[in-house]
Design a protein that fits this description.
The complex is a heterodimer of chains A (221) and B (247). Chain A is built from 8 helices and no strands. With 221 residues, chain A is mainly α. Chain A has one domain: 3 helical TM bundles of succinate and fumarate reductases. Chain B is α+β, with helices and mostly antiparallel strands. Chain B folds into 2 domains: 3-111, Ubiquitin-like (UB roll) (Roll), CATH 3.10.20.30; 118-246, Fumarate Reductase Iron-sulfur Protein, Chain B, domain 2 (Orthogonal Bundle), CATH 1.10.1060. In chain B, the strands form 2 sheets. A 5-stranded mixed beta sheet of chain B has the order 2-1-5-3-4. Classes of the chains: A mainly alpha (221), B alpha+beta (247). Chains A and B meet through helix 1, helix 3 and helix 7 of A and strand 4, helix 7, helix 8 and helix 9 of B. Chain B: Residues 150-179 form the 4Fe-4S ferredoxin-type domain. Chain B: Its cofactor is [2Fe-2S] cluster; [3Fe-4S] cluster. Chain B: Belongs to the succinate dehydrogenase/fumarate reductase iron-sulfur protein family. Chain B: This is Succinate dehydrogenase/fumarate reductase iron-sulfur subunit.
C-alpha cells in the first residue's frame, strides 16, 4: 500500500487524519454545548440538532470520512508502533532518555489507546443507541437523545470516566496538533512557535470545554 | 575519587551482552570520560583481560566517533556535549556510572561499546552530495550568498554524525541527521538544484536502513552535541512533500 512506503508518508497520513479529527472536535464541542442551555430549551434544541445531523446527506458523507479517519489513524498508529519496536532493537538496560522530552509526547500510543477505548464506550452508549436503538420521541417528534445523555451523566462513575478520558485526549492534542504541523513541513521558526502556542491553547480549550459538559450536567440536572 | 562502573560487555553482534562491574580508585576529576576509560583499559590489559572497546578519534568534540550512553543518556549528563568533552568533574566520588553502546536495529554492536554506524553513511551515499565536476576550488565570491544563509547552512552542516539523535529517539529515528544533511545542501545554490531528487532518495534510504519514524518529541536536539535544530526535520518533511506533489 502507498502509505506504508516510508516513515514520512505514514506520518503524513497520521497528521492529516489527526488534524481532521481535531477540527471535528471543535464542531462536536460547539454542538454539544447546547446541552448547557436552560432545561426545556436544551431538550428540544438538542434533539432537533441531533435529528438535523442524522438526516443530512452532507453530514452523512462527512461522518463516513470521520469514521475512516478514526480507523486509519488507529491502524497507522499500531503499524508505526510495531515498526518502531523493530527499529529500537534490544533497547537499553539503563534508560534515562526521558529527561529530554515531555512524557505525553513519548506516550501518544498509550494516550491514544485510552481515547480509543473511550470511543468504543462513547459510540455504544450514544451513537449506536441513537442510530439503531429504540428511543422515545419528544414533543416535536425528534428522538429524545437529550434525556438519554442527562441520565448517563447522572452517574458519578460515568462522569469520572469521561473526565479521565478527556484529560487523556487533552494531552494527546497538546502534542498531536503541533506535531502534525511539523510533520506536514512547517519549518518557519516564528510560525512554528505560533502554531505550537495555538495548539496548546486549542488543547486547553477542548479539554475544559469537554469536561464542563458532564460535570455541569451531574451537578445541575 | 572512587568510581564504580557498570560497563556493557558484548563479544560480537551475535552474542548477548551484559553489564560487567569495575571499580577505579584513582580517578581524577580533571580527566575526560574517555581518559577514565583508558585508565580502566590499562588496568585490564595489565591483568591480561580484553580491554573495553570503544570508538574515539579526535577527542575534541568534532569527529562524532565517541558516542556512548552514560547513565542512560547519549553522551552523558551534560547537554550538547560529546562523550570526549565530558569530564569526571560531572560525577561525584563514589558514583556508579552505567556505560552502554548506542542501541538501535540500524546500529549493530561490533564489540562492547563499539557500534557499526555505516547506516548513516549509506544515507549520505544515497544523495547527500552535490554532483559537480571536481577540480580546483572556485573563487569563493563567484556565487553571492548572504551571511544569514551561509550561517544557517553552517548550523545544519555542524552535524558530526555521531548518532546521538538516533540513540535518544524513542523510535530510533534518524530524521535529525538526515534532515540536517538535506538542509545544509538545500540552502546553498550548488546543492539546491538537486533537492527534489536528493530528499526522496535519502528519505527512502533512511527507511531501508531500518530507522524508525519521527514523532517530534524533540529529544534529539536536546541531546545533540551540536544542538542541531528540529526545524531541520520539518524542512525535510516540507521538501519531501513538495517533491512528491510536484514530481
Amino acid at each position: 500500500m502507498w502509505y506504508v512506503k516510508n516513515a514520512l508518508t505514514r506520518k503524513n497520513l497520521m497528521a492529516l487524519t489527526g488534524l481532521f479529527l481535531s477540527f471535528f472536535l471543535i464542531i462536536h464541542l460547539l454542538g454539544n454545548l447546547q446541552l448547557l442551555l436552560p432545561v426545556e430549551e436544551a431538550r428540544l434544541q438538542y434533539n432537533w440538532y441531533s435529528h438535523l445531523l442524522a438526516g443530512n446527506i452532507v453530514i452523512k458523507v462527512i461522518s463516513i470520512v470521520l469514521y475512516a479517519c478514526i480507523l486509519l489513524h488507529t491502524i497507522d498508529a499500531i503499524y508505526m508502533s510495531l515498526k518502531s519496536k523493530k527499529a529500537n532493537g534490544p533497547g537499553y538496560a539503563k534508560d534515562n532518555r526521558g529527561r529530554a522530552s515531555k512524557w505525553y509526547a513519548r506516550n501518544m500510543m498509550f494516550l491514544g489507546s485510552i481515547i480509543f477505548l473511550f470511543l468504543v464506550i462513547h459510540f455504544k452508549d450514544f451513537w449506536y443507541h441513537y442510530k439503531f436503538g429504540e428511543m422515545p420521541l419528544d414533543e416535536n417528534g425528534n428522538k429524545d437523545l437529550y434525556t438519554l445523555v442527562i441520565a448517563a451523566f447522572d452517574q458519578l462513575w460515568y462522569v469520572i470516566l469521561y473526565v479521565l478520558a478527556i484529560i487523556a485526549l487533552g494531552y494527546h492534542l497538546l502534542h498531536g496538533v503541533f506535531s502534525a504541523h511539523r510533520t506536514l513541513g512547517l519549518y518557519h521558526p516564528l510560525y512554528s512557535k505560533i502554531v505550537k502556542f495555538l495548539g496548546m491553547a486549542y488543547a486547553g480549550i477542548m479539554t475544559v470545554g469537554y469536561i464542563i459538559i458532564p460535570v455541569f450536567i451531574y451537578l445541575n440536572r | 575519587m572512587k568510581i564504580h562502573l557498570k560497563i556493557w560487555r558484548q563479544k560480537d553482534s551475535q552474542s548477548k551482552g551484559g553489564f560487567k562491574e569495575y571499580t577505579l580508585d584513582d580517578v581524577h576529576q580533571e580527566m575526560s570520560f574517555l581518559e577514565m576509560l583508558d585508565t580502566l583499559n590499562i588496568k585490564l590489559v595489565k591483568k591480561g583481560e580484553h580491554p573495553v572497546e570503544f570508538d574515539h578519534d579526535c577527542r575534541e568534540g568534532i569527529c562524532g566517533q565517541c558516542g556512548v550512553m552514560i547513565n542512560g543518556i547519549a553522551h552523558g549528563p551534560l547537554k550538547n556535549t560529546t562523550t570526549c568533552q565530558l569530564h569526571m568533574r560531572s560525577f561525584k566520588d563514589g558514583d556508579t556510572i552505567y556505560v552502554e553502546p548506542f542501541k538501535a536495529a540500524a546500529f549493530p554492536v561490533v564489540r562492547d561499546l563499539k557500534i557499526n554506524r555505516s547506516s548513516l553513511d549509506h544515507i549520505i551515499t544515497s544523495g547527500g552530495y552535490v554532483s559537480v565536476d571536481t577540480g580546483q576550488a572556485p573563487e569563493a565570491n563567484t556565487i553571492p550568498i548572504t551571511n544569514e544563509i551561509a550561517e544557517a547552512a553552517f548550523d545544519s552542516a555542524a552535524c558530526i554524525g555521531c548518532g546521538a539523535c538516533v540513540a535518544s529517539c524513542k523510535n530510533s529515528s534518524a530524521a535529525l541527521f538526515t534532515s540536517a544533511k538535506i538542509t545544509q545542501l538545500e540552502l546553498l545554490p550548488q546543492g539546491k538544484k538537486e533537492t527534489r531528487k536528493r530528499v526522496v532518495a535519502m528519505v527512502n534510504q533512511m527507511e531501508e536502513e531500518g530507522f524508525g519514524h519521527c514523532t517530534n518529541t524533540e529529544a534529539c536536539q536536546v541531546e545533540c552535541p551540536e544542538d542541531i535544530s528540529v526545524l531541520n526535520i520539518a524542512r525535510m518533511n516540507y521538501e519531501y512533500n513538495k517533491s512528491k506533489i510536484l514530481n
